[in-house]
């Protein structure tokens, strides 16, 4: 069984994330969405809320793609999480050239730690390349409409959390 790991904080999950998940699901038999706990980032949504939002969206995607897609919280090294879930490949989404430099360094470090796990990069569709969870939260905080950037249930949760 080909297992992939797509890690992130997903605070919150966006249409850009969903685009990458949909396309990654075509490459593997099982896709694990690694939900980073990462206390340093100070997420807007709790781990439980982020996992629930991911599970709701991935249930639909799993039915559409025929690929098993599951959420898996983690707080250890990414390469250790990949080993823990049996992943042979780590999936990373790229939005712009600026993402590449950081991701390039991460791949080098991960390969030094475990060279049996490959990393693949998927470019977000053009219409999703500008979407970043950080910007979505800022727009929502300032009363802007983020409905075109996030699923409807996520938009409702943002409104409930931030007002508007």
Distance between the termini: 45 Å
Q: How would the global form be characterised?
A: globular
Q: How many distinct folded domains?
A: 1
CATH fold-level name: Rossmann fold
Average pLDDT, to the nearest integer? 93
Figure out the total of helices: 6
Please describe the biggest sheet, giving its number of strands, its sense, and whether it closes into a barrel: 5 strands, parallel
The fraction of residues in strands falls at 15-25%
Strand arrangement within the widest β-sheet reads: 3-2-1-4-5
- The topology string of helices and strands comes to EHEHEHEHEHH
Which CATH architecture would you pick?
3-Layer(aba) Sandwich
Write down how many β-strands occur, each being a DSSP E stretch of 2 or more residues.
5
Could you name the CATH class? Answer: Alpha Beta
Question: How would the blueprint of this fold be written?
Answer:
Elements: E1 3-8, H1 15-25, E2 30-36, H2 47-65, E3 68-74, H3 78-85, E4 89-94, H4 97-113, E5 118-123, H5 133-141, H6 152-162
Parallel strand pairs: 1-2, 1-4, 2-3, 4-5
